[in-house]
Amino acid sequence: MPVYEYTALDGSGKSVNGIIDADSPVAARQRLRGSGIFPVDVKETSSRPRDLRSGPVSVSALLKRIKLGEVSVATRQLSILLGAGVPLVASLEALISQISNSLLKKSMAQIKESVNEGNSLTYALSSHPRIFSNVYVNMVRAGEASGSLDVVLERLADLGEHQQALRGRFKAALAYPVFMFFIGTLVLFFLITFIVPNITQIFREMHQTLPIPTVVLINVSNFLKSFWWVIMLAAAAGIVIIRQLKNTPRGRYVWDEVKLRIPVLGPINNKMAVARFGRTLGSLLKAGVPLISALQIVRNIVDNVIIADVIDNTVDEIQAGKSLASPLAQSRWFPSIVVQMISVGEQSGELEAMLSKIADTYDRDVESQIMAMTSMLEPAMILVMGLIVGCIVISILLPIFEMNQMIR
Q: What is the mean pLDDT of residues 186-201?
């Protein structure tokens, strides 16, 4: 059913804005009049930005996005309303009035209308895959089936807030090194392409035999000044080619294997995948999702086809009668301590709690490793930039020293 944005006047003549779902603009105006307000302007809207071919799109519409934090806040508010005994449709109506993001508000209005027509909340959420992930939808399905939707929504809110906090810490840790890298690159590029040629021009005019470091510096400077655009195009082409290769099954497999095997970053990527596996599987099991179904969901969100293959093999082994820990122990990507903790959780009946502990432990480990890596990265970048600047200075000073010896 279409969603309409409206501007109307209430009984006291005050202007009010909002959204409403109806079969047509006429039906929308009739519903507004029936609620005691008088529509001034009613126009159809959409839950996603229009395609560029359908007409001009405003810059604000292109830049507007639904953030993970906004979804988490809306999820927690809906959980509170349902926990207080408010019916689902009324809870969604109250939630819509509290949302400030226009795209999220329009999407929630369509979800409310779908539920009001008799569909389940799971079905309504699945119509918005860009906002609500596969894990989110399946946990809501389990909550509806078990009658504990408010509890499941609260867990989803906790999961989303944890992911948002982790991303925030990673971005904060990487912000300064990335800033230094780009500024340092721009400074060195300006130094080599604009400052160095003016200085070395004096040496060329003297027709003096130059030292090898100075010759190399002059050639590098001339190349960058004349063909910098070739480097930019080659870098852009390389990025496009890598992305295209990643979209092929073989290319994706190789890329994911490189991510796990690359020095320094490989162990971090492995631990992040294990933490994601533990947290998501634990949350699904707590929500009442069967183990096989939960593993099939988790394989789609680990973001690595190699680990996804391990999970597929685990599903086959469990269906053959084995435990969860047994097939995971055969994979090198699941550390022995993780397998032991899962085995203890299965034997004690506390698998969900043990998976959450695994996720917490590895999240903290990844965070500490990234912090240590970024703290080492900063002085390493300064050292590299200092060496490059030192080589430039030496290359410029060598001809000056030689001329000084000739004068003597």
A: 82
When divided into structural domains, the chain yields a total of: 3
- Statement to judge: residues 313 and 398 lie in one domain: yes
- Same structural domain for residues 111 and 216? no
Q: Can you tell me the mean pLDDT for 295-301?
A: 82
Q: Which helix (H) or strand (E) holds 400?
A: helix 351-407
Residues 357 and 352: their CA atoms lie apart, in Å, by 9
- Sign of CA pseudo-dihedral 363, 365, 369, 372: positive
* Phi then psi dihedrals of residue 320, to 5 deg: -85, 0
Q: What is the pLDDT of residue 54?
A: 39
43 phi and psi, to 5 degrees? -140, 145
Contacts of 282 (CB under 8 A, 6+ apart): 351, 352, 353, 354, 355, 356, 359
Cα 128 → chain centroid: 17
Angle at CA 19, nearest 5°, toward 18 and 20? 130
> What would the pLDDT profile of 321-373 be if each residue is shown by its tens digit?
999 999 999 999 999 999 999 999 999 989 999 999 999 999 889 888 888 88
Instruction: Please indicate, yes or no, whether residues 295 and 364 belong to a single structural domain of this protein.
Output: yes
- Give domain status of residue 59, yes or no: no
DSSP label at 18? E
Task: For residue 367, give both structure tokens.
Answer: 């965070």
Residues 386 and 285 in one domain: yes
What element of type H or E holds 231? helix 212-246
Domain span at 368: 162-408
Question: How many residues can be counted in the chain?
Answer: 408
Question: Can you spell out the DSSP letters for 137-192?
Answer: HHHHHHHHHHT-HHHHHHHHHHHHHHHHHHHHHHHHHHHHHHHHHHHHHHHHHHII
Measured between alpha carbons, how far is 169 from 389 in angstroms, rounded to an integer?
32
Which helix (H) or strand (E) segment is 92 a member of?
Answer: helix 88-98
DSSP state of 17: E
Contact yes or no for 128/111 (Cβ under 8 A)? yes
**One-letter amino acid identity for 250?**
R
Q: From residue 23, how far is each of 5, 29, 105, 113 by CA, in Å?
A: 13, 11, 18, 11
Q: Tell me the average pLDDT of the chain.
A: 83
Q: Hunting for tokens 């122990």 — which residue is that? A: 329
The pLDDT of residue 312 is 93
